[in-house]
Amino acid sequence: MKRLVSGIKPTGELHLGNYLGAIKQFVDLQNDYDCFFFIADYHALTIRPTAKDLSYLTRHVAAMLIACGVDPKNTTYFLQSDISEHTELAWILSNFVSMGALNRMTQYKEKSDRHGQNAGLFTYPVLMAADVLLYDAEVVPVGDDQVQHLELARELVRSFNAHAEKTFIEPKPLLNTGARIMALNDPKHKMSKSIPGSAITLLDDETAVTQTIKRAVTDSDPGAKEMSPAVKNLFTILEGIGNRETYLRLENQYKDGTLRYSELKEQLIDDVIAFLGPIQKTYHALLKDEDALVQILEEGRKKAQPIAAETLAKAKKALGLIVG
Ligand code: ADP
């Protein structure tokens, strides 16, 4: 099986957009690839969360991915900061990338406008390159916004391999096929924790789910030929988490012009609640026993670290550093 590496940052409570756009893919990919999934807590530092938030969100994301179906037995599932080789390799790699190349990263421009121009945010793509190169990743799942970063990682490989002996392989992008979920109250923007009323988090209770969906934007023309982005978004969520037959029935009703949006919303409320129930149950059970979660991450560390250590030693030797 080809090796695949991907991380998720603990920067917010996970929502249906994260699930349908990223986590669901993780769950599917674990059967086809040798998956290394990690909680990117060092990457989360680039926006300087409070210690309390970072600590909560790291546990939240670590437990939620498992609750959503990521299987730590079938993958290598670990915490980035548990493996110091990530940051060591990032330092080494930073000597093989130009300031100009980092300056071209569009995500830095967007993120630094919001979070300030810290150097961590600027060199983030180098740490990301280290994350994947350490494990000889053959494929890396990427959304549109990560394509540029992966290309930089590939350039880094070429630059390093040209300077020293061939050490790394160039990881290939696996374009993310996940849905892009839009804000329920404003379909022009992505569903996001930072837009109030836009998201259903995976921890929302029945009241919150009901309220958010009831307030979701639709349109005034259920019979229109072209489905509006707002209604399409509701259908995308229904398709992603619900029953296929129900989805097709409602879609046909839409096509016939007989669908009432209140009916679509009622169905969506029922399906979202039914979908979240078992996930929340597993999540709370996992967090009740903190030791068990730590133990799962420790098992992942034990699997990942020897590989990381071997790659780092290889890179150091290739550069003439003395390896004990
Ligand atoms: P990032 O800054 O890495 O995008 P986020 O927490 O915003 O961090 O997202 C984590 C993952 O969830 C990413 O893979 C991202 O593409 C995906 N994601 C976030 N919001 C949405 C959304 N509204 N629809 C689909 N995917 C999303």
Automatic annotation (TrEMBL):
Its EC number is 6.1.1.2. Keywords: Aminoacyl-tRNA synthetase, ATP-binding, Cytoplasm, Ligase, Nucleotide-binding, Protein biosynthesis. Its main location: cytoplasm. It comes from the Bacteria. It catalyses: tRNA(Trp) + L-tryptophan + ATP = L-tryptophyl-tRNA(Trp) + AMP + diphosphate + H(+). Gene3D superfamilies: HUPs (3.40.50.620), Tyrosyl-Transfer RNA Synthetase (1.10.240.10). A motif ('HIGH' region) lies at residues 10-18. One of its GO terms (molecular function) is tryptophan-tRNA ligase activity. InterPro entries: aa-tRNA-synth_I_CS, aa-tRNA-synth_Ic, Rossmann-like_a/b/a_fold, Trp-tRNA-ligase, Trp-tRNA-ligase_bac-type, Trp-tRNA_synthetase. ATP binds at residues 9-11, 17-18, 143-145, 181, 190-194. A motif ('KMSKS' region) lies at residues 190-194. GO terms for biological process: tryptophanyl-tRNA aminoacylation. L-tryptophan binds at residue 131. GO terms for cellular component: cytosol. It is found in: Cytoplasm. SUPFAM superfamilies: Nucleotidylyl transferase. Homodimer. Belongs to the class-I aminoacyl-tRNA synthetase family. NCBIfam families: trpS (TIGR00233). Catalyzes the attachment of tryptophan to tRNA(Trp). This is Tryptophan--tRNA ligase. It comes from Candidatus Berkelbacteria bacterium RIFCSPLOWO2_01_FULL_50_28.
